[in-house]
């Protein structure tokens, strides 16, 4: 089993370039199934979740061609059936976007229940079902497969989401793109990747208004055509490198970012005493202070502080001067990293959906286990600033969503290796 080995205590210095956004990629790739035209997608991150999704599409009958430089061409003309039940479906949360995409193409979808990161409590899909049902889909779940059918074609509907679910917003947008009439999603998610998917669907001929606000209107079209799009850069990878620079007391220029998407993260880091400057249109320079200040952080839907940055923020606050509270208003039990940080000497405990952290002057290296993607990123950051050596198991979670994390950290001066690095090098020869 692969492990990361981190010899901590080295401030990060230099510059790093951010890859395409994972959460946008896993929404845009299934969208290419809606059309039999060819889609070209650029700035695709080289991460495990994307590789799995491409395999799912190939099994469905699509051709996926690596066009080089992070670009891929997807030709879904050969997709003849709406059945996506392969074992790979359970490796991803976002595999459920095939419900919306296959419904839009065939008026039917048979899709295995999704997998993805487990945050403690089950992740519901009732809002997806509510939205698609309002559009005329009959939905049943049997033997781990969700079956959605329509008499003929979905129709437009007014859908109020009880919570601004990213997944439900995306699934409804996909399905509504070829429904008859207009669909209105009220209390829609406003995350950057929702907007990026809307841009891609529009390039495929869909008519979508209001993405990025809490009301999205989709005027359905008879069919969509192929399109070309470059995926936005990853807000959460950028945020994770910002946190790593700050935690180690280093100075890092983070390139290829959309500064607007980082404001919700930068604001909190600045309150902690981190210095952040935009340099040009697509770079920020982040410099850690001598000692971080304690602050309270509340994760909330965009443009609030991202729940996907909550574990990384907690690591910073473990080293801050004073007591902080981190509350997650999206996933109430997303605190799998607490016991691991405690092994490093952190003073941290959960109280309901809040984590109380009393800052300590230093963390110490320890053997750790990553329990999910962002918790894994948080443990890497903790290892980078700890005294001594940290070994992290469960790195498959981290590699689901971060492109070449170790290589990028090494280029910033970190002492990080993977226990299976020699084996991989041999295989590459
Ligand atoms: C997406 C992101 C994930 C991020 C999360 C919140 C992707 C692939 N994943 O996950 O990285 O952490 O947004 O920003 O983009 N809910 C329901 N019923 C539903 C759907 C959701 O009750 O049908 C609840 C969830 O339990 C959760 C909240 O709504 O409490 C938000 O979930 P949602 O925005 O749907 O998250 P995901 O789309 O799963």
Provide structural commentary:
This protein is of the alpha/beta class. It folds into two domains: 2-19 and 233-420, Enolpyruvate transferase domain (UDP-n-acetylglucosamine1-carboxyvinyl-transferase, Chain, Alpha-beta prism), CATH 3.65.10; 22-230, Enolpyruvate transferase domain (UDP-n-acetylglucosamine1-carboxyvinyl-transferase, Chain, Alpha-beta prism), CATH 3.65.10. The protein has 14 helices and 24 strands. Strands 22-23-1-24 form a four-stranded mixed β-sheet. Strands 2-15-17-16 form a four-stranded mixed β-sheet. Strand 18 (297-299), helix 9 (310-318) and strand 19 form a beta-alpha-beta unit. It is globular. The model is unreliable at 422-429 (pLDDT under 50). The structure holds uridine-diphosphate-N-acetylglucosamine (UD1). Residues 23, 26, 93-94, 123-128, 163, 165-168, 189, 193, 307-308, 330-331 line the site of uridine-diphosphate-N-acetylglucosamine.
Q: Any idea of the CATH class of the largest domain?
A: Alpha Beta
Query: What is the terminal-to-terminal distance?
Result: 21 Å
Q: Which geometry do the CA atoms define?
A: globular
Count of beta strands:
24
Strand order of the largest sheet: 22-23-1-24
Computed CA radius of gyration, to the nearest angstrom = 21 Å
Average residue pLDDT: 94
Number of domains: 2
CATH architecture heading of the largest domain: Alpha-beta prism
Characterize the largest beta sheet: strand count, sense, and whether it forms a barrel: 4 strands, mixed
Helix content estimate: 25-40%
User: Would you give the CATH topology of the largest domain?
Assistant: UDP-n-acetylglucosamine1-carboxyvinyl-transferase, Chain
Q: Give the number of helices.
A: 14
Ligands, ions, cofactors: uridine-diphosphate-N-acetylglucosamine
Question: Roughly what fraction of the amino acids lie in strands?
Answer: 15-25%
Low-confidence stretches: 422-429
- The CATH homologous superfamily of the largest domain is termed Enolpyruvate transferase domain
């Amino acid at each position: 089993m692969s492990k990361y080995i981190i010899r901590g205590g080295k401030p990060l210095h230099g510059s790093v370039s951010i890859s395409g956004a994972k959460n946008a990629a896993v929404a845009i790739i299934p969208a290419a199934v809606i059309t039999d035209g060819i889609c070209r997608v650029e700035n695709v991150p080289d991460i495990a979740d994307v590789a799995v999704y491409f395999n799912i599409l190939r099994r469905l009958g699509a051709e996926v061609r690596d066009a080089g430089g992070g670009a891929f061409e997807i030709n879904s003309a050969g997709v003849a059936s709406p059945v996506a039940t392969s074992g790979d479906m359970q490796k991803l949360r976002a595999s459920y976007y095939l419900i919306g995409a296959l419904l839009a193409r065939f008026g039917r979808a048979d899709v295995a229940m999704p997998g993805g990161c487990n945050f403690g409590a089950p992740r519901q899909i009732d809002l997806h079902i509510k939205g698609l049902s309002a559009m005329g889909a009959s939905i049943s779940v049997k033997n781990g497969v969700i079956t959605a059918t329509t008499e003929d074609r979905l129709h437009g509907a007014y859908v109020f989401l009880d919570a601004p679910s990213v997944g439900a917003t995306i699934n409804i947008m996909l399905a509504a793109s070829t429904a008859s009439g207009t669909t209105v999603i009220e209390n829609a998610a406003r995350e950057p990747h929702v907007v990026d998917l809307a841009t891609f669907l529009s390039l495929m001929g869909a008519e979508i208004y209001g993405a990025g606000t809490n009301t999205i209107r989709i005027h359905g079209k008879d069919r969509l055509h192929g399109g070309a799009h470059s995926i936005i850069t990853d807000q959460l990878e950028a945020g994770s490198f910002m946190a790593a620079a700050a935690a180690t007391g280093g100075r890092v220029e983070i390139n290829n970012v959309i500064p607007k998407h980082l404001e919700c993260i930068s604001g909190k880091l600045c309150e902690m005493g981190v210095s952040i400057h935009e340099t040009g249109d697509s770079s920020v320079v982040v410099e850690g202070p001598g000692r971080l200040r304690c602050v309270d952080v509340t994760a909330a839907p965009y443009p609030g502080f991202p729940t996907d940055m909550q574990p990384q923020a907690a690591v910073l606050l473990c080293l801050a001067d004073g007591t902080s509270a981190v509350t997650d208003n999206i996933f109430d039990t997303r605190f799998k990293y607490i016991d691991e940080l405690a092994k490093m000497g952190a003073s941290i405990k959960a109280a309901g959906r809040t984590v109380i952290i009393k800052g300590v002057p230093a963390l110490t290296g320890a053997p750790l286990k990553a329990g999910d993607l962002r918790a894994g990123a948080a443990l890497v950051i903790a290892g980078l600033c700890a005294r001594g050596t940290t070994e992290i198991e469960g790195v498959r979670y981290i590699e689901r969503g971060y492109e070449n994390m170790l290589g990028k950290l090494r280029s910033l001066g970190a002492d990080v290796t993977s226990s299976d690095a020699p084996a991989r090098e041999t295989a590459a020869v």
